[in-house]
Amino acid sequence: MNSVQGLLAASVISIQNSQFVYPACQNCFSRLILDSRRFSCLKCGYTGEAKDASYRYRLSLKIADTKGLFDITVFGSCLDPFFGVTAKNLQRYIQDLNQLSGETNTEPFTRALVQAVETCFIGKRFIFGV
């Protein structure tokens, strides 16, 4: 499923979600079910300790080219250069920030991250492999 069928030069109009990182199965990349100690993949049955969970980027965008508007989702390590760290390291950083602040309300951190991502992507033109 990694084969590119075509290229699309388009501008990012908006970010469609505020959840840029998700716990991902190392076998099939599906979203993991996490509890405080364990994780499991409902798709392939992979399990392990929660501290060993892998994370992956998932960025849903609304983009536009000369022919119209499109919804597109960008997955994986191709986003590492834009975030400056791997998805696992970004998740660790967010968790550490939450613990250090002692805040139970993580809304300010989430809002700051969303604003940073919007600044990086909205209004910019990229070439997407589809």
List keywords for this structure.
NA-bd_OB-fold, 26% helix, DDIAS, 35% strand, five-stranded antiparallel sheet, alpha+beta, DDIAS protein, three-stranded antiparallel sheet, Rep_factor-A_C, 130 residues
What does this structure look like?
- Pfam families: Rep_fac-A_C.
- Residues 9-95 form the Replication factor A C-terminal domain.
- One of its GO terms (biological process) is negative regulation of intrinsic apoptotic signaling pathway in response to DNA damage.
- With 130 residues, this protein is an alpha+beta fold.
- It has a domain at 7-21 and 57-129.
- It is built from 3 helices and 8 strands.
- The strands form 2 sheets. Strands 1, 2, 6, 7 and 8 form a 5-stranded antiparallel beta sheet that branches. The chain has a 3-stranded antiparallel beta sheet with strand order 3-4-5, with no helix packed on it.
- Strand 4 (38-40) and strand 5 (47-49) form a beta hairpin.
- The longest helix is centred in the C-terminal third of the chain and has 15 residues, at 87-101.
- The protein starts with 6 loop residues before the first strand and ends with a strand.
